[in-house]
Design goal:
Chain B: GO terms for molecular function: 4 iron, 4 sulfur cluster binding; FMN binding; metal ion binding; NADH dehydrogenase (ubiquinone) activity. Chain B: Keywords: 4Fe-4S, Iron, Iron-sulfur, Metal-binding. Chain B: Belongs to the complex I 51 kDa subunit family. The structure holds two protein chains of two kinds. Chain A is an alpha+beta fold. Chain A has seven helices and four strands. Chain B folds into three domains: 211 residues, Rossmann fold, CATH 3.40.50; 85 residues, Ubiquitin-like (UB roll) (Roll); 111 residues, Up-down Bundle (de novo design (two linked rop proteins)), CATH 1.20.1440. Chain B contains 18 helices and ten strands. In chain B, helix 2 crosses helix 10, helix 3 crosses helix 6 and helix 13 packs antiparallel against helix 14. At the A-B interface, helix 2, helix 4 and helix 5 of A face helix 7, strand 5, strand 7, strand 10 and helix 13 of B. The complex binds flavin mononucleotide (FMN), iron/sulfur cluster and FE2/S2 (inorganic) cluster.
């Protein structure tokens, strides 16, 4: 039942129209599906395949390459603790042990109440602020075990619900290209001439 | 004097020229209002009042080096597209995920309009008719900031049809990934942007500038590379090349992490600033944590062979770091002090590259996994002395011949210069071996003290490949 909702279908069509080839929209659309349900269902993949003109197997082929896509429900909050070198040097392992004890699950597991999924992650581009983690891809920097306790408390009591949306939502702002400003995507085979501004003269 | 800002975590400002971080001091640096109040879109306007070819020549003569890893000059790259083949595309590489690297995310979060203006200048100069700005999937805030900036820039007439009322029209499409390090490799980035699994393509024939997105000529540039262009257009080539050296002009963003007193991201003067300045200088990291001794450092992101104190006086200059046995890569220095467990530290990197292998080439897919398993066995105390030889043998299947490493006076080693030979399509395979090779070459005794003597059947009765395979199964 988790084909894209009507509202998301409108967004999906807008996204597809931005690309010279429809299949290019696939990863953004997979994110849209994950935003809608927290994970990507088979029905969603069938729907996305219809939208961009490929089989659902091809959709899964692409989706399964990327670590952020989940094909089964996970916790509302995905806690990714970085364990790559800079964070490892600064105590990432201790953080992971602490989080495992506090949540009562091993890395990769989800708590029984469906609130938290704990995972080991690779370098998050915050290496100077090690050790670090992301909750639903929102950063926590120079994290101590006590910070982990506070974070989990705050997530449990809903204190952070404004800042951190449920798993699946990335950017809270979408790109909108106004129709009167858009150049529009053109299939490459339909373009035969050089851009008009390459005429040896200034454009302005 | 060094200053930090709560709104730009990690960034450390100083009394140095600022090309890409000039607005970081402002808490609202990401808004169009702040951008316009601080010379924003002035470089674009200046560019549009001149023919595109002049702007291309200007970028060429400024020698704006690529900041994504390879250090190839942007202006030269733009010139590699075949004549009269249209359309051409710009793909912006915002997939920052090389271990130790933290700069492109800051540039996208703190000054998205600067990046957008850079994209526009590149498209104008090189005749690129659509731009795709690919941001790493895990960077929700960067996506949010760039989306907002694009929406504002479209509304204000800086992006889209007839920019600033001129003949120049280009769309910038925000695209975002979904977690795969290898997608940062430019041909994998293009595959991913086409909606496929992000596996690198063979070069040749798939050099992006000739045969890239949808088979069309495509320029792939790093976020920081493009962020340099607005300043260059506002201030001119002479001002740009007055900073840094002739071969490495301008500045570059460098993240220093690990065991230093004050880790941070700095915009440093290219070609001049040394590793000693960065690690020990008061305006930079201020020395090693707890005044410990320096053991080793990674000079250019997780893929780079390691340096020790012997190389501290090298500047950020590719023509000196390459012959010394490593690379500047993505501007990431990771510092290890004397307390570091070297095999364990190397294992985190080998695990990373083995984990991120796309699986297309056997030496990377299998070799990376073997390296990781053997390393883990050694770190866990289950290794034997034969494992050390095996690490090198597996490495030689990925990178035949002498692997680059630094000189070391105490060990009597002379440098083997960068680069290496490789049997794989991209650098992920060799990168799994680089930390192993560095650790084993520079700190062999740490491995030897951890492994036990191997009691085993004579090697003559088993082929070397079988030995490795057996080792894998036992781990
Ligand atoms: C495995 C691998 C990962 C890479 N990751 C990135 C990356 O995250 N960001 C980036 O800009 N370049 C990355 N590169 C380099 C790109 O292939 C490409 O050279 C670069 O984006 C070109 O931009 P520049 O010329 O402006 O530096 C990577 C290369 C390899 C082999
Ligand atoms: S080297 Fe590794 S990551 Fe790169 S193409 Fe080959 S298998 Fe894929
Ligand atoms: S190593 Fe953890 S953020 Fe880079």
């Amino acid at each position: 039942m988790s084909r894209l909702s009507e509202k998301n279908l409108v967004i999906a069509k807008e996204i597809i129209a931005r690309y010279p080839r429809q299949k290019s929209a696939l990863i953004p659309l997979l994110h849209l599906a994950q935003e809608q349900s927290g994970y990507i269902s088979k029905d969603a993949m069938v729907h996305l395949g219809e939208l961009v003109g490929v089989t659902s197997a091809e959709v899964y082929g692409t989706a399964s390459f990327y670590e952020m896509f989940r094909f089964e429900p996970i916790g509302k909050y995905l806690i990714n603790i970085c364990g790559t070198m800079s964070c490892a040097l600064m105590g990432a392992e201790e953080l992971m042990h602490h989080a495992e004890k506090r949540l009562g699950v091993k890395a990769g597991g989800t708590t029984q109440d469906g609130m938290f999924t704990l995972a080991h992650a690779e370098c998050q581009a915050a290496c100077t602020e090690a050790p670090c983690l992301q909750v639903n891809y929102r950063y926590r920097l120079r994290v101590t075990p006590a910070d982990i306790d506070n974070l989990i408390d705050d997530l449990q009591t809903g204190k952070l619900s404004d800042e951190i949306p449920a798993h699946g939502v990335l950017s809270k702002v979408r790109q909108v290209i106004p129709a009167d400003r858009a150049v529009g995507a053109i299939a490459p085979e339909l373009v035969t001439e050089s851009p008009v501004w390459l005429n040896g003269k200034a454009a302005l | 004097m060094s200053t930090t800002f709560k709104h730009a975590p990690g960034f450390v400002s100083g009394d140095r020229p600022k090309i890409v971080t000039s607005r970081f001091e402002f808490a609202d640096s990401f808004t169009i209002e702040r951008y316009l109040a601080t010379d924003g879109y002035k470089g674009l306007r200046a560019a549009l009042t001149r023919p595109a070819s002049e702007i291309h020549d200007e970028v060429k003569s400024a020698t704006v080096l690529g900041r994504g890893g390879a250090g190839f000059p942007a202006g030269t790259k733009w010139g590699l597209t075949p004549q009269q083949v249209w359309p051409r595309y710009l793909v912006v590489n915002g997939d920052e995920s090389e271990p130790g690297t933290y700069k492109d995310r800051l540039l996208m979060e703190r000054d998205p309009h600067q990046l957008i203006e850079g994209c526009l200048i590149a498209c104008y100069a090189a005749g690129l008719s659509q731009c795709f700005l690919y941001i790493r999937g895990e960077m929700a805030l960067a996506q949010e900031r760039v989306a907002t900036a694009l929406n504002d820039a479209y509304a204000a007439g800086y992006v889209g049809k007839n920019i600033l009322g001129s003949k120049f029209s280009v769309d910038i499409v925000l695209h975002w990934g979904a977690g795969a390090y290898v997608v940062g490799e430019e041909t994998a980035l293009i595959e991913s942007l086409e909606g496929n699994r992000g596996m690198p393509r063979l070069k040749p024939p798939f050099f992006p500038a000739v045969n890239g997105l949808y088979g069309q000529p495509t320029i792939v540039n790093n976020v920081e590379t493009l962020a340099n262009l607005p300043w260059l257009l506002c201030n001119g080539v002479a001002a740009y090349t007055a900073i840094g050296t002739k071969t490495s002009p301008g500045t570059r963003m460098v993240a220093v992490s690990g065991h230093v007193k004050r880790p941070g991201v700095f915009e440093i003067i290219n070609g001049i600033t040394t590793f000693r300045d960065l690690i020990f200088g008061e305006e930079f990291c201020g020395g090693i944590k707890n005044d410990n001794k320096l053991k080793a450092f990674v000079p250019g992101g997780g893929s780079a062979p390691w340096f020790t104190a012997d190389q501290l006086d090298l500047p950020f200059e590719a023509s000196q770091v390459g012959p010394a046995g490593s690379m500047l890569g993505s501007g990431a220095v990771i510092v290890m002090d004397e307390t570091t467990d070297i095999p364990a530290a190397a294992l985190t990197l080998t695990h990373f590259y083995a984990h991120e292998s796309c699986g297309k080439c056997t030496p990377c897919r299998e070799g990376g996994t073997w390296l990781e398993r053997i390393m883990r066995r050694i770190v866990d105390g289950d290794g034997t002395d034969a494992d050390l030889q095996q690490l090198l043998e597996v490495g030689a299947m990925i990178c035949p011949g002498d692997f680059p490493h630094a000189a070391n006076e105490k060990l009597g080693l002379t440098a083997v210069p960068f680069p290496y030979k490789m049997t794989t399509i991209c650098f992920v395979g060799p990168s799994a071996f680089a930390p192993v090779h560095s650790a084993l070459t520079l700190f062999r005794s740490e491995f030897e003290s951890r492994v036990t003597k191997r009691v085993t059947i004579p090697v003559t009765s088993v082929s070397s490949v079988k030995t490795v395979a057996t080792a894998g199964v036992h781990s």
